[in-house]
Amino acid sequence: MGNVGAKEIPVLLSPEGLRIDGRRLDELRPLTIQAGALHQADGSAFVEWGANKVLAAVYGPREVHPRHLQQNHKAVIQCRYNMAAFSVDERKRPGLDRRSQEISKVIGEAFESVVFAEEYPRTSIDIYIEVLQANAGTRCAGLVAASVALADAGIPMVDLLPAVAVGKVGGAIALDLKKEEDNFGEADLPMALVPQSGRLVLLQMEGHMTEAELAQALDLGVKGCREIYEKMKQALRERYAIGPMAGASS
Amino acid sequence: MSEEVDAEIRTTHVLDLAAEGRRLDGRGPDEYRKITIEPGFVATADGSALVRIGDTAVVAGIKLEPGKPFPDTPNAGVLTTNAELIPLSSPTFEPGPPQPGAIEVSRVVDRAIRAAETIDLTRLCVTPGEKSWVCYVDMHVIDHSGNLIDASLLAAVTALAHSTVPAKRFEVAEADYPLDIQHYPIECTFVRLGDTIVVDPTFDEERAAQGRLTVATDEAGRIVAMQKGLVGAFSPDDVKETVRRAFRHGAELRELAKGGTP
């Protein structure tokens, strides 16, 4: 999208229907989730997803800062998604740019849709997402990490929130775009699913799609989310298993 | 405190009405408020429009200036969009750096304009790599009674469609010429109120909403952008149905953007 005057466009889809990294259209990149990756945070997770490396930490429920954001009948959920300066090819100026602020907002709202915030009035649940290495799909990787971190922190929620981006590459609907596919593809559609209800709490889209393609993309994304959901649950089981299965220490 | 209580009462009322298929202002779930569009509202801009959707009002102004293309797109002009939610327009807005709400509006509007290829940026290039037009799209929300995204994009697209490239003033060409519009993206925003999904939410409806969904479509039958916002959820079937409604409303709103309302 929007590659006016850009360099050569790579071949994104082989005649056999394989993608630039050899994946099928409905195949996820390798995903590993480690629940409980940090020591100071109340909950944390580290996600490696394709060439993405994303950390999430959860603090709280704790006192609200700044104070005036405090709500009398529920916890406020504050989310900060940030990309490290070295996480992309060309150094990114440190700090929250507009893209990061928008992503922080929609991720925060997604979690507000599933966290039982009314259990903790006058407190704040702070979610920090730090992208260390980026290769497309960082908001979804951040959501997955933050969701596991919330569970790790013992915050009561309706459900975990698996997330994935579906896109359109070489005219075909494809699951979990990597960087080249995102840069040169025709559409990008990140989403986060509440597996229990089958509803979406995050949904964004940019590019070109017909109605039929969108329907196909939604179905593919929901399927991908369910696959990711299993890995999220597995990560939490490993963290809290007793005995030889025990995972990372905290 | 009384403000909080007032908000609570209104929210309950909006949701109670929605359960009966009614709305505070008497509209049906699939009805927009009255829309008026006034192109050329600001004479000092290179293109402008004042858009009203009910009691919501947004002014968009276009300014074109010669500048430098980005190094990675040497053959294209530069497009910059910005939405200002100024304190004048609502008691809920405070002065200072843009809040997440304002950033979301400008980014969602920007996404639709860009993805739809509303203007052909290559035609804004003067000398590749050196000189190109920079097109600033500034949107000022002046009265906030809900649904800022739809009003802002409608104002921006109308303003772009009525813009002149000031080539003579900047001594780039012999004469000014109209800015070319390739596509007309239109955004339609819906909110969930209980089991009903209504179009064109008012301020009170947005506050009561259990999720907001914006769908941008163009005249070529493409979906070019989407954004789910606020706390709440939509099923894939909700999304598909909403897209159908967005295409239908989009076609009507597009005609208004092209012609302006009398």
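qc> Residues 1-6 of chain A have pLDDT under 50 and may be disordered.
qc> done
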